[in-house]
Design a protein that fits this description.
globular; mainly alpha
Length: 275
């Protein structure tokens, strides 16, 4: 008998390959086997995923700092953890679109008159969710590099690792909370009001331990981070607005808003006349 992963000769009583560590599979795939594998990988207390998920809350420096310093076996590596987060985020979007489309409402966090613009942004994020998530990692890492410019503890690549872990953790917990809240009819606009501050606090919490900062130090740097991030979003909004203007989408939005106001005015006039 040989290992199906690396072709190493095996003894009949061996359950794991001594060369590559792969598990010896003797049974054909069945639904029961798949459930057992899933349970072994994700549901038992000792598995790396639950250990990583828990440690990123209780001791983030042990996970992130450990990986940066060379500890690669204790927790799920950053690429795999990010892949899990992207998968769960995609599942979240599928579930919301398929079963709870009514909660895809951003009116709670949208300025009056900008509903169409927000809707288009939401559609874009839903369609390119994985790409958007991947772009946030280098952006946040760059902003952190600027905010912590005088502290040379981490280089840019190491900050990419840090924010890949941080954003993955935020994405995983947000996906779970969003689906649970959707069951009770809570819109994502309302959820974002509560989730956004928690995401900011969690990111600051991780960076505080990574950089070994005081409470005052992390608060000041968090405010600076948000200020720079706000400026970046304003610039992005201007660029998107210009692109929409030249593509004709901006004009369509204005015309749609005018038409909606005219319909509302007509309905109000009819109601007042009949009463």
């Amino acid at each position: 008998m040989h290992c199906k992963n690396c072709s190493e000769p095996l003894q009949e009583d061996q359950n794991y390959c001594p060369n590559c560590g792969g598990k010896v599979i003797r049974n054909r795939i069945s639904f029961k086997n798949l459930l057992n594998d899933f349970s072994a990988q994700f549901l038992n207390y000792d598995n790396k995923f639950l250990q990583t998920f828990t440690a990123l809350f209780t001791k983030p420096n042990d996970v992130i700092g450990g990986y940066i310093n060379g500890t690669r076996k204790k927790y799920v590596n950053v690429i795999s953890y990010f892949a899990i987060a992207v998968t769960l985020s995609g599942l979240q979007i599928f579930v919301l679109n398929k079963f709870f489309p009514e909660v895809l409402d951003l009116s709670a966090v949208t300025a009056k008159g900008a509903e169409d613009f927000s809707r288009k942004n939401l559609e874009f994020i839903n369609e390119y969710q994985s790409l958007v998530m991947m772009l946030y990692v280098p952006l946040y890492a760059l902003l952190a590099k600027l905010v912590f410019l005088k502290k040379k503890k981490f280089n840019y690549t190491e900050l990419l690792v840090a924010f890949a872990y941080i954003l993955s953790q935020i994405s995983i917990i947000s996906a779970v909370i969003t689906i649970v809240c959707a069951v009770f009819g809570v819109s994502i606009g309302t959820m974002s009001i509560f989730l956004l501050p928690l995401q900011i606090i969690y990111s600051a919490y991780c960076l505080k331990y990574l950089y070994e900062l005081s409470m005052e130090g992390i608060i000041l740097r968090t405010l600076l981070f948000l200020l720079i991030l706000g400026i970046c979003f304003i610039i992005m909004a201007i660029v998107i607005g210009i692109a929409m203007y030249y593509s004709g989408d901006f004009k369509k939005i204005i015309e749609a808003q005018k038409a909606a106001k005219e319909v509302t005015y007509t309905i109000s006039s009819v109601i007042n006349w009949t009463s």
